[in-house]
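Section 5.1 Outputs to date
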Amino acid sequence: MNGGFDLAFDRRSERGPFDIVGDIHGCCGELEALLQRLGYGVTWRGHDLPPATSAPAGRRAIFVGDLVDRGPRAADSVAVVMAMCDAGQALCVPGNHDVKFRRWLDGGKVAMTHGLQATADDYAGRSADERLAVSRFIRALPAYLWLDGGGLIVAHAGIQAHMIGQISRKIEHFCLYGDTDNRTDPTGLPQRYNWAAQYDGSATVVYGHTPVVEATWLNGTACIDTGCCFGGALTALRYPEREIVSVPARASYARRQGVWGLPPAR
């Protein structure tokens, strides 16, 4: 039973190979450099036109979400991802920052924190048509992707084994925010728990959301958010090769609260 939810997450017939890209957070210069290393191309055609993009034969990119906030080129980052998705060169899942940004685009009341002001500033002067297209793009993204005959999951913050193949508000929330409760950590951020420490599913799960110093494997899961916006790196996982490809950040665009690394388990 899907309770009326869209089953767009079920892409098991799509086998790859894939290049799964971690949290971009507006770091478009690093995104362009990483895509070039992976064999993709991005050509800018003017301020009012989407970029022209290309992909290596037989491969597609997958973006784990958090395209916006903190970095200097949020609008360009979204434009690249949208162009690649429109051309059939990429797939994407939403991050919590993207969903909050979409609410702002739709006129919702949201706190201009955690980098959203930088994104709003970057979209100042953009046309209403462009902003509407971005809102629709984010709204249409599936909460997670179930790929490669069921052997691969891509979700922004992760997913628990018993959730795979299903969708609900609770599952959507977990995919966006991970294992959280109503508590906050010493920095005032929502407390996160390391769901991957108990993961026992057969599918490989690739996710971001929690910055780590380097891509981290645990129980068949891979966290590939290496904190580019905080001065770390932008990382991709080539699948099924399991090869890690990274480019260093060109600057530290935001200050990281708390420590890097996977949170405690529970």
